[in-house]
Amino acid sequence: MFLPVLAKSVDLLDRRFVQGLLMPSLVFWAGIFALVAGELGWTEVGGWWNALDTLRCVLLGLGAALGLVFFAVLLAGCVPTLTRLLEGYWPEWLSARGVRRQLRRWGRLDPLDAVDFMRRHREFPYSAEKFMPTRFGNVLRAAETYPGDEERYGADAVFYWPRLYLVMPEESRSEVRDARTALDQAVVISALSALFAMTAAVGAAFTRNTALWFFGAALLAAGLSHLAYRTAVGAAAVFGDLVRACFDVHRHELLASMGFSRPASLVEERALWLAVSQQLYRRLADRPELLRFDTASEGRDPGAQRMPEPGGGA
């Protein structure tokens, strides 16, 4: 799974927090309050509130606001875990069943049909061995394995993504941040809706006169959770397309920023990415002679360096 993008601006953090965490949390707790108030009686709840003095109303409102922010902060730390859960990082017996189902979906796509061919490319990894148990997980895995394909670049996306992000222009990073914001927001809404549905379903068994109201709220929340999940799948596809594009367009900038010579061919590039990965992972590459620094380009803009002459080596 991709690491969360770094180096976000303060304004973006505020927007992501309010839109992606605070607002869904507010709706969630407002729904819980509506269920409880409906069971206790809106008249009784209104009478209790009107009986409070001004100071207690202010303190209660302030406490609720602080509690909501605290809940949103805690929720922010759960987003990676929720994302992994939707991806399908489950117990092996359950994961295997999901993978078999995804393999059947993949098998029903006609590789000769243009639309089905694109779906295979965007919604599934290139190898069946890398399939995940869910649609959401396969869409993200397809983007994650794209640059690491040995028939493409051979660059491990999970390992190189934080490094690539640091050298990308701000315009590219902004597009990635926006796509990630939409993805995280859909994940949060889906998770909170599912939690609300379970809470309402359990509450229906302990209510006196509003069991039907609780049950209806549970069904509505379950439908919203499913809709948000489908939205998350679409957002993951957009995010995955951007990740692919970032590697396609900016991977040579990453090599240049690390000081390596720009490869003269795709074959040499694959060998270079493998050597760099081995050196950084295990501190020793099988072919260390490929790790040659481009000393001629020191002090110049990496994007302005010339392609080496054909046959000049990696």
From TrEMBL:
Record's keyword annotation contains Transmembrane helix: yes
Transmembrane intervals: 21-38, 58-79, 186-206, 212-229
Region (Disordered) residue spans: 295-314
Keyword Transmembrane in annotation: yes
Keywords: Membrane, Transmembrane, Transmembrane helix
Protein name per its UniProtKB record: Uncharacterized protein
Lineage of the organism: Bacteria, Bacillati, Actinomycetota, Actinomycetes, Kitasatosporales
